[in-house]
Specification:
By secondary structure, this protein is an alpha/beta fold. It has a domain of 206 residues: Rossmann fold (3-Layer(aba) Sandwich), CATH 3.40.50. The protein contains 13 helices and 13 strands. The strands form 3 sheets. Strands 4-5-13-10-11-12 form a 6-stranded mixed sheet, sandwiched between helices. The longest helix is centred in the middle third of the chain and has 16 residues. The radius of gyration is 20 Å and the shape is globular. The model has no long low-confidence stretch (mean pLDDT 94).
Length: 395
């Protein structure tokens, strides 16, 4: 059990995302064994927090500390993650007739992607619980982020990554001192390898939604979106979803802010974007029971979208249903074209995952699901510079 001292967080417990069975916040938990579903952190709804106090706080994700589950400030492991900019895509918008097109760009995070948020949180909780060795399956960015934060926290780190992952992702893990294990296949094959390696529970597994804390770090994107837009949410958010933690986290943040009284409805429509090479959400929308049997996943130039069997599928489907959104898949050729177009038009070299959101917007507008006069926010989850070796094959 964790000794509660100097607690300033509003977090009060954990619950199963399916049946809502309660779990202790003071014990080291992974996922809900009652339903084999992710656990989520709950916060005391009796507390209040004046959003105006944020103006004087540090410019990173820990400005929302009361709504994060680290109980002792001394355990926070931070490299300055969060408070990433929102850009106006005026030239693209004008070229295609969109009057209010924005992009939240996660490139400036440590290790160059939004993964820094979740791994800062997860490693902070690992430190709080006295964990000595973490392990993670990754398509690329999450491995580098875990390695960096473990290095900062003096925690051992093992990263299991597909062999075909671009070299730069492998190099950064090793530079941070992590043990790197390569596996032929996709991230699900890496997860199987971790199951073999961790049969004696030597490591703390920080797989997506297999522990409840990465989600809390990712949700800070939602808090920032609201604050940066003066508490007026966009009509539409288009998000590149692999494991789906960011999509789920942003929605969780919006609902928490409704409770806090920081925002009012309606909430944005949420669209989950995938690669046609690996689009399990679309298959699950068609058949929520048998979706795992109905497609053959392949690698994608957008490494982060190649997640064939996401553990949080039910939570993603709930977000899409609650927000009146849906999922869209984009071809590999369109993704590459999107990277090139945004670089040449707006001067941003974004990740293939981010480029997929732009191409998805064009499809959604063509199909009359998004109007040109709506406020639309795209999410770029990481730096395109890490993918240049991959992109070189397509020039």
């Amino acid at each position: 059990m964790l000794t509660l001292t100097k607690s300033y967080s509003f977090a009060v417990g954990l619950k199963c995302s399916c049946c809502h069975k309660e779990y202790s916040l003071n014990s080291l938990n992974t996922f809900a064994d009652c339903c084999n579903r992710p656990l989520v952190v709950e916060y005391d709804e009796e507390y209040s927090l004046d959003k105006n106090k944020l103006a004087t706080r540090q410019q990173n994700m820990w400005r929302y500390a009361e709504m994060l589950p680290v109980l002792n400030k001394e355990n926070i492991v931070s490299l300055g993650e969060g408070m990433t900019p929102i850009f106006e895509l005026n030239k693209l918008g004008a070229a295609y007739g969109f009057s209010d097109l924005l992009m939240k760009d996660e490139t400036s995070n440590p290790t160059g992607s939004f993964k820094a948020r979740g791994l800062s949180m997860a490693v902070s909780k690992a430190k709080e619980f006295g964990i000595e060795h973490c392990i993670i399956p990754t398509a690329g960015n999450a491995g580098g982020a875990l390695a960096a934060y473990c290095a900062r926290a003096d925690i051992k780190c093992t990263v299991v990554m597909p062999t075909h992952t671009p070299k730069i992702f492998k190099q950064e893990c090793e530079l941070y001192g992590a043990e790197l294990i390569l596996v032929d296949g996709l991230i699900n094959d890496c997860a199987k390898k971790i199951g073999e390696l961790n049969s004696s529970h030597k490591y703390f597994d920080i797989s997506t939604l297999k522990e409840p804390y990465r989600l809390e770090g990712k949700k800070t994107m939602g808090y920032e979106i609201a604050e940066q837009l003066d508490w007026q949410l966009p009509d539409v958010i288009i998000y590149p979803a692999g494991g789906g933690t960011g999509l789920i986290g942003i929605w969780k943040a919006f609902k928490e802010m409704l409770t806090l009284g920081w925002i009012t409805g309606p909430l944005p429509r949420m669209y989950a974007i995938q690669s046609q090479n690996c689009s399990p959400i679309l298959h699950a929308l068609k058949d929520a029971v048998n979706w795992k049997n109905n497609f053959t996943p392949e690698p994608s130039i957008a490494n982060g979208l190649a997640v064939p069997y996401p553990f949080g599928m039910n939570m993603m489907l709930d977000v899409l249903q609650e927000s009146n959104g849906t999922a869209v898949s984009i071809s590999e050729e369109e993704i590459v074209a999107g990277v090139k177009e945004i670089a040449k038009t707006e001067g941003h070299i974004i990740s293939p995952e981010g480029a997929a959101t732009w191409k998805a917007l064009l499809h959604l507008h063509k199909n009359k699901m998004i109007r040109a006069d709506e406020k639309v926010l795209l999410l770029n989850t990481g730096s395109g510079y890490k993918y240049l070796d991959n992109l070189d094959l397509h020039f």
